[in-house]
Every structure is written in structure tokens, then in C-alpha cells.
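Q: Protein A?
A:
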Amino acid sequence: MVTPVIAIVGRPNVGKSALFNRLVGRRQALVRDVPGVTRDRLYGVVSFGRWQATIVDTGGFDPVSDHSLTSAVRRQVLTAIEEAHLILFVVDARAGMTPLDQEIARTLRRCQRPVVVVANKIDSAGQDALLGEFFALGFPEVLPVSAEHGRGVATLLDAIRDRAGHAEAEQEPEGLRVAIIGRPNVGKSSLINGLLGSDRLLVHEAPGTTRDPVDTPLLFRDRRYLLIDTAGIRRKGRVIEALEKLSVVMALKRLERCQVAVVILDATEGVTAQDAHIAGYAHEAGRATVLAVNKWDLVPPGKPSRAEMVNRIRDRLRFLDYAPVGFTSAVTGSGLAELFDLVDQVAEEATKRLPPTLLTKALAHAMERRPTTRAGLPLTLHSATQVAVAPPTFVLRVSGAEKVHFSYERYLVNALRQAFGFTGSPVRLAFRRTRVKKARR
């Protein structure tokens, strides 16, 4: 059963992303009172009763500009129009009709898709008179809404359902959620485009092109994934603009929602302090992690070798010594299949569960090999239990002390890894003191 696709189109800063957020029922797209915030195509699901449709937010449409970035955004918008069964043409009722609105209308009339004109920023019935001039655009329906306050949205949903069809789509499984994170301009969007074999995401030489986290379904080797492309994350001291701060906040929220984080490193620049900062977010969030050295095709053969690059990564990112390393080229496509072998591996390892008997036996053996004391008392293990996965988390009941020196805790984690793997996942231990009850006289 085909799911209706609805594209939101309009010039910059008319409220397209605000309407998109209102229809999907959550703040998925960035909204700021400046033009050009949205650049990629953002997909969401709009529900009205039992009816559902896919809705697509697009960047500000300018059919005539020759600027390279504007042209790239225009290609994204035209792709969304080609996919759509219905187009919502959003205009700014307060600003009135502009020459750019008329130019967009001419483009939409040529595309042979049904169009509903959405006159946004009409907050009260007294402003409905502003609709009149927009009928001159040549489309039969002009509906007043206020995306900010929700006025007119129910009427708009009725119109969308009537024009797009009444098919009740079956929900497909979402797949493994994989967040692609890294600093600006390391090739995150290019890598996703390479996997898809199409220009799904906008790629430009200017750093910071991606602003919204973009969810992209992927069927790869008969397995479903949801790839989450995020804005380039910079260190807090370098993030000045409010828009960039919002982009980083949303990227970090998506990191918390994913199951696997792929940290992209630039092979031509090596591991930077910024890379370590970003990788630390994945570690602290407890996400299964893969390190991807991108742009490997630009490195001269043997300078450095893969082994040397891995050693440099281990030296700079010691806290991620558990994360496997892959080498990719988003441009040539090399290494992408191997990268997803690692993604599948760490996803499986992150959800591994151990029986208490086997776990206790392995940890007791490790503590016998290297006993320790705390506050003059020997540390003795009574039992161990796994209480969570993703990340694997264990509670150890011990006598002697609740607090264990971090170096000994690291020793026990390494013992667990040596015995059971957990490749790609941080392992967390919690110690609980077992109190010995005194016998009654």
C-alpha cells in the first residue's frame, strides 16, 4: 500500500519548518527567524485519526538564483516535488505576495502535482482578508493557518487527507538507528549519499552545510537501518551563533536516541582535539561506537599505513580503546560494506546478556589473579548480575568497600572484555557493599 507523500515548499523564512513541526507533532526541524535555516529534505509522519502520510520539509526555494549553495538546495526541493503526491505551497500572509512567490508558483504549475496554498502567520480571524491576493497564484485552494499557534491546522489536515488519498499505510520497521557524528566537513553527508547511491543529503564544500539532523531509511544487505546525519559539532568555545548552538543541541539529542554512533574522522587531518571532544559525547552517552577514518583515498599509499593510523587513534582516544576502526571513502565507496560489518557487530555486542553464574565465575577468577584491598579490607566478590544492556551494565556485590579505585575497576572491565567481548560498547560497573549480619546471642 503506497503511503502518500506531501512536500512543503516555499521561499525562505515563510514558516515551512514551523508548519512541519506542527504537523508531525514534535520539534524535529530547526526553526529560527532567519532565512535559509533548512537545507536538506527532512521526512516525518503526519497522522490524522487512522490516516497517515509522509511529510517532507524543504529548504527555501529560489528557482532563479545562481549561488552554488542555493542551487544545491533547489535540487533538493525539486527532488521532493518529484516524489510528492501533494504539495503544500507555504506563503507569508503578513508579508504579502512577492515576485519570488510568483516564480515558485510558475514552477509548481509545470510539475503537474496538486497544490494547496497555505497562507501562514494568520493568527486571528481578523487577518483572513489577507488571503485574497494569493488566489492570483492560480491554485484553487488557499487556506489560512498559524503554524506557531496551531490555528487552522485541523482544517488543513482535512484538506490534505482529501487531496492526498485515504490509504491507511502500514508502518515498516524502523531498523537499527545509526547516528553519523563528527566535526564539520569530515564527509558525514557524503558517506550517507555514498551508501544510498544518490544525493539524498546536501553536500557543499562550505563547512556546516547540514543543520537539521536528517533521518534516512536504508535497506542494506537485506537489513534495515535508520541513518541519522547530524550537524557538525564544534567545541563549545567556538560555537557562537544561536543557530549553530541549536544544531549542536539537536545533534546531541539524536545521539542519545541512536543505538550505534559512527564517529567520522578525517584521514587527511588525523585525530584532532575536536574529534576527541565529539567521541567523548558518544562514550558518555553509553552508545556502541565505531570509528570511521573517512577520505582514506586522499592519503598517499603507505603514508601512513592503516596500522600506524590505528595506533595514532588509540593514542589520542584512549578512552575509546574498545571501539573498532574502519577505513572509508565516501567518494569511491570503498570500505562502506566493511564499515557496516562493524556496525552490525557492535550493535549485537551491545545487547549481549550474560548469565549470573558465568559472570560471577569470570570476575571472581580475575579478582583471585589480582586481589586488592580498600581501606585495609580485602575486596571479596559475593555475586555479579547484569542489570542492563546498551551499554552493558553490571552490579557487583562485594564485601570490603563500595568504592573501588578506578584503575582496579578498569582492570575488571578489561577482564570482562577478554572473557566475553563487548566490542564497541562501554562497560559500566556498579559496586554494592554486602553487609554481614551479626549473629544473635
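Q: Protein B?
A:
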Amino acid sequence: MNFSIDPQGHFIIVSTEVEKLDASNAPELKAHFLQLNKVGSNYIILDMSKTKYCDSSGLSAVLIANRLCKDTNGKFALSGLQPTVLKLIEIAQLDKVLTIGSTKDVALDLIAK
């Protein structure tokens, strides 16, 4: 399994279990986000601590999750970003639109506000 989903009360933690988030598995992640949104889960943390590489397909999945949560008055955050993934997000200037926590607990605090 490429992703795990862990309900934490009002919040959902989706964890990547892959080293590379790319075109081979990003559609699966998007499908998880769409399904979560369909059942009304709109407070989501994506824990990427196991992912060392992310391409544009992966970023697209992240942005879809962010939009789905915002469109339904929820919140979305990233946690556990590896340096290479964080650098990509900063280069794309997505660090200005995404909520990023260094750990799951920090991300949880950020979206609980």
C-alpha cells in the first residue's frame, strides 16, 4: 500500500509510504483525497516524512487536497517534509499558500486553530 489513512477524531492523517511521489502513484493519492472529501473529511494532514522525491504530479495531488479542504471550509497541512521536497515546494513558491508543519503534531496545531 502506497498510502495509509489514520483518522484522529476530527482530523485525518494521510501518510505517504513511498520514497517517490510521482506520476506512478500520485493518481492514487488524489483518489484518496477525493474519497475523503466525498465523505466530509476536510481537516487533513499529509505526512510526507517517508518521501524523499516529489514531482509535478505529486505537487498536483497536494494542491488538489488543499483546494478540496478549503472549498469545504476545512484545512489542509503538510508535515515531515524532507529537505528535497521542501526545496521543490519553496522553488514553486507553494510554501506561501500551503500550511507546513515540521511534524504531525505541529501540523495538527496549525490546522486546529
